[in-house]
Write a structure and sequence with these properties.
Layout (H helix, E strand, L loop, with lengths): L4 H8 L18 E3 H15 L1 H13 L3 E3 L7
Parallel strand pairs: 1-2
């Protein structure tokens, strides 16, 4: 299942407004694009600070979320 920035934030952040509506157990084969990863980096840095940004990629790795590369053909 392709996940966007809001879903990833809801899964990882304990106080996220969307968290009550996201059921991680029902998400199979989670995937994000490199573009979502960039957006997450910007949002997390802005909203939570650099220290949280450093840990964010580790959280994504722990959840085994696949990161799809962006192919120039797709652009």
């Amino acid at each position: 299942m392709y996940l966007d920035t809001d879903i990833i934030l809801a899964i990882i952040e304990k106080d996220d407004w969307l968290k009550p509506f996201v059921n991680w157990k029902k998400i199979s084969n989670p995937v994000i694009s490199a573009a979502v990863l960039i957006e997450l980096d910007l949002v997390v840095n802005r909203e939570y600070g650099k220290e949280k940004t450093k840990n964010f990629l580790n959280d994504i790795k722990k959840l085994k979320i696949k990161i799809e590369r962006i192919d120039p053909k797709d652009l």
